[in-house]
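Colleagues,

Please find the record for the two-part complex below.
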Amino acid sequence: MPESPTGLLDLRSLRGRAPRGGSGATASVTAPTAPTDHTDHTDHTSGPAAVDTVGFADPPTLGRRPAVVAPRASAGRRVLDLATRAARSSVAILALLALWEVAPRVGLTDPVFLPPLSTVLVAFGDLATSGELATHVAASLGRAAAGFAIAVSVAIPLGILIGWYKPVAELLNPILELFRNTAALALLPVFILVLGIGETSKIALVVYACSFPVLLTTITGVRTVDPLLVKSARSLGLSPVRLFRHVVLPAALPTIFTGVRMAGAASILVLIAAEMVGAKAGLGYLITYTQFNFQIPKMYAGIVVIALVGVTINGLLLTLERRFSRWRTASV
Amino acid sequence: MTTTTPSPPPKLRFEHVHKEFSVRAAGRGRGARTAFTALDDFTLDVPAGEFLTVVGPSGCGKSTLLDLLGGLTRPTSGRILLDGEPITGPGLDRGVVFQQYALLPWRTARANVEFGLQAKGVGRKERAALADEHLELVGLAGFADRYPHELSGGMKQRVAIARSLAFDPEVLLMDEPFAALDAQTRESLQDELLRIWRATGKTIVFITHGIDEAVYLGQRVAIMTPRPGRLQTVRTIDLDRSGDDVRSTARFGRLRHEIWSALHADATSTAASAATSAATSDAGDPTPAADVSPRELEASRA
């Protein structure tokens, strides 16, 4: 465990936040002893059950409820914890943003090609108030969501078939290997030629790019289900369908979700590229259009929006994943 | 060879059960296969309510025997009768407890116990009640909402036992259930199991490689020898278990030694025969029971 590195980072971030006053100031006062304390507390709150079941493992406490006496952090303590954690995770970003603002102003970069952050934010504000931004975001998200949804609903069942039935795998594997190793963007011209320059080709490209991560992780997930769980379920006389629903699918779900998250990232990635080539709306279009028209701050605003959209999608999928696999980290 | 109880019909009857697997023939090129006898002419009756332990070294066909009982594989010849009916597949009239617990990690202890009941088609309300009742039976009343990863090895095995008892099987089959536990936990679970057995009156077939465990738990001990897996002898355990530390009594020691001698005598003789057969090249790598189940699974998937 990276206990000491986190401790160091913790210290540094606390110092960084000190001038902001309030909780930051108190934190910096307690800083020398704080780091180890903090890690301790997070450990306890995340897994009190695991800790005390070890102690109360067997006979002596048969049938007795274990005394759950995980040390509870006081409310103030917890706020402080949260504040330091927020500081620790945002310090690098804040530094980057500061650099962005300062570098063009002091002449480290050409302010025309890399305008300071504040200029970009103004452009961002203009885009947002004019409604232009909403149009582009909606166009992009609509395409990404459609392609993503189609990919997931096709790739998961297909992956299950391939993972579970050997003959299907033998039949489809060569084709899958071939397509998997063909970069999605290399096929963009083909998609446009065959499906036209409209929505269909863009959504199709997203479907293509999203399918493979989901497909491959689903195959792995289904194949790596603990054989003992299958054997035990079979010994109960479970029908194949119920075996699947109650054992194989839940066991494979965490692995499948990894692929779904990768697909989420891929959907935006290829879509932006597709929109750069041929579109009348969308974030990719916004970026190329503003570049050609030398509206550099707007271009950067578009890039920032794409980054934010990507982070948001990943966050949403992570939350969903946690909901589905709560049993892995759940405490009582 | 067999110790039949004449008057009541046996709960379980093994009739000349024989099981062969086709395994890769070592050193005979790719694709060459040879028959490996995992279980040879196994004949035994188990009366209702008996606690039978099966002891033997690894590779003696214990686990194959259990897979056959569980209906996960079929004998090459011979048959197994449960209440006079031949076993043709898995079913809820037998409950299996595995060494590695086989709990579903995404289900709480209660939901794991309910799993078998779900398979049986028991209604939701009744399911919860039965699960709680059986968790209490195994001493886990307060742990119903815990996930397996929040339980110790001993507790997990208790949940597994509760799961197998909850759907009320005729026979409980246990495949070295305590082998992965530490000595103290094992002893306490052995006592728990005896208590549960007395309380429920189930017929139990308990497979182990521990002689102590076999003697301590079983009313009878079936001693098996490897290559091929054979039933060597069945020893009735006439042990007074009312005392405090049964394991240190002279009687226990004698019984233990008898079984040890039976296994040992056989081990030396098979070692000798293995040495001679190695010369004729067929000893190879026997890849016994442990390797068999995954392959069987593969077969069922294909």
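Chain B touches chain A through 47 residues (CB under 8 Å).

Comments are welcome before we finalize the supplementary table.
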